[in-house]
Amino acid sequence: MGLIKDQLRNFSRLVLPFISFVVLSDSTSAQTTPGNAPPQINLTTQAGTKDEKAEEIVRRAIAAQGGGAFLGVKTIIGRGYYTPFDKGVSTLPQAFIDYLVFPNRERTEFRGARGRNIQTNTGDGGWLFESSTRSLVDMPQAQVEDFRLAMRTSLDNLLRGWWRSEDARLTYLGRREAGLARRNEAVRLTYTNGLVVDFEFGAKDALPAKTFYKRKNGAGEEVTEEDRFASYKTVAGVTVPFIIDHYRAGEQSSRINYDSVEFNSPVPDALFVKPANIKAIK
Prior knowledge:
Helix content: 10-25%
CATH class: Mainly Beta
Number of helices: 5
Structural class: alpha+beta
CATH architecture: Clam
Low-confidence stretches: 1-10, 16-48
CATH topology: outer membrane lipoprotein receptor (LolB), chain A
Number of strands: 14
Shape: globular
CATH superfamily: Lipoprotein localisation LolA/LolB/LppX
Distance between the termini: 20 Å
Mean pLDDT: 83
Largest sheet: 14 strands, antiparallel
């Protein structure tokens, strides 16, 4: 299951980060407002403190991505290509279709030279299918934890305020250089367990530009993980990136390139139920 494991680690935290799902309660969902007006989302932590400048940056980002339309999304179906990179060089792309349903269900299907692979997360569990080895197994706990980490570091976790249920702290970091005559506004989420995630937004357009955090690799070394967002398009009033590049220790490790995105289309519950056997997979 090596390919599946690598895909889960890289794809889950990248796929549609503007609406990625977390293993948290939906009871703290933010208030929506119509059109592009900045929603009056409450970013106060459980400790009762808040950073007014950081709150402003997040509200501007929500408005830039569609305001009420962005916050009103409940399901997403995305199609496109996922390309792993080896030592900074792109390898063969794999076609994918991804189904997302609030609050915590995701199913991603890959098709490529190695056949068909499916990874499904449902709350605290899930299952994996790999056609090349004809294996159908429950999601290993280590990969469940990878998924949880991916969601805690996602843009949606920040923009929809789910981090508040963990009593994380949101702070403003200031402006950072982002190329010729460009700057980004940076904010930081700090969790009580020490996890730190930085988010950058365009100073002019307020759209998500980058995210950063650190994690330990297989050798126990701490490395920086970074996402970069590009090629924004507006679909049904929601503005989202169609290209997402992931970097590990400064070297590109994958790219997601979307062909299409559907919001609030019906997604059958049956897609997330583990089949009785391989023959039952559809």
